[in-house]
Design a protein that fits this description.
With 270 residues, the protein is an alpha+beta fold. The protein is 46% helix and 14% strand. The protein is built from eleven helices and seven strands. The protein has helices at 2-14, 32-43, 62-65, 67-70, 90-107, 113-119, 126-139, 149-163, 168-182, 199-212, 224-230; strands at 20-25, 49-54, 73-74, 82-84, 231-236, 249-258, 265-269. The strands form three sheets. It has a three-stranded antiparallel beta sheet with strand order 5-6-7. Strands 1-2 form a two-stranded parallel sheet. A two-stranded antiparallel sheet has the order 3-4. A hairpin with a 7-residue loop joins strand 3 (73-74) and strand 4 (82-84). Helix 6 packs antiparallel against helix 9 (168-182). The mean pLDDT is 95.
Amino acid sequence: FSEVARIVKRINKGGNVHQHLDLIAGLPYEDMESFQNSFDEVYRLHPEQLQLGFLKVLKGSYMEELKGAYGLVYKNKPPYEVLYTKWLTYDDVLVLKMVEEMVEVYYNSGQFAYTLRHLEKDFASPFQLYLELGRYYEEQKLHLVSHTRVARYEILLTFIKELQTGREEFYRELLTLDLYLRENAKNRPEFAGEYTVSKEFLNEFYEEEAEQHQYLKGYEQYDKRQLRKMTHIERFQYDVLGDGAEKETRILFDYENRSKLTHQASVFRL
């Protein structure tokens, strides 16, 4: 694994390759504890996608020949996924299914990148974060309902508030950052709070930008009103970007120039 980790980190440094790392649950000799350790090791490499899959015991395969020795019980219809083994109970598999769903919604969507990087530090391990989040969904019966994208932000903020970390406002700003990194939302969601950038600042900035184009490259054909509609400026009290700048800052989101790797908008401190 150390060699795999070295290569993954080397590729990450380039910032131009979308990496998917896969984990398979239900392999022989792997129990819940060892799988959690594997999950945490792979997660900390921060690939763009972390796929949590389950062992499939295909007819005629060598794994099927050893199903008795391994205590493999699996679905008799496609996709022939494992239900339990000598080392992993059926309840364990259900827990991992729950974790898989949370990873898919919150990590693999790429919509909560800054929030998750901080939130994982409030738990004993990354696996515990998604485990507790999954349990919260089930306790609140949220797993039985289809949710909008904005609702996922609201749910995560409510979950964070119940943790009582004392940093709820910081996390609210992180979620607001994550939202506007992906979308120029015209209808401001309730969780983001009141919009605090003054009209005077906006008028002055876009008037100057329409003449000088100090930040927005490639927008030369647009006037100040169009620039304002095509971009977004948000005021933050905290250092949400984590680059050591002053706490209170305004951030400009440029949606025409996005990261090809993450699809996040380019940002500029104002």
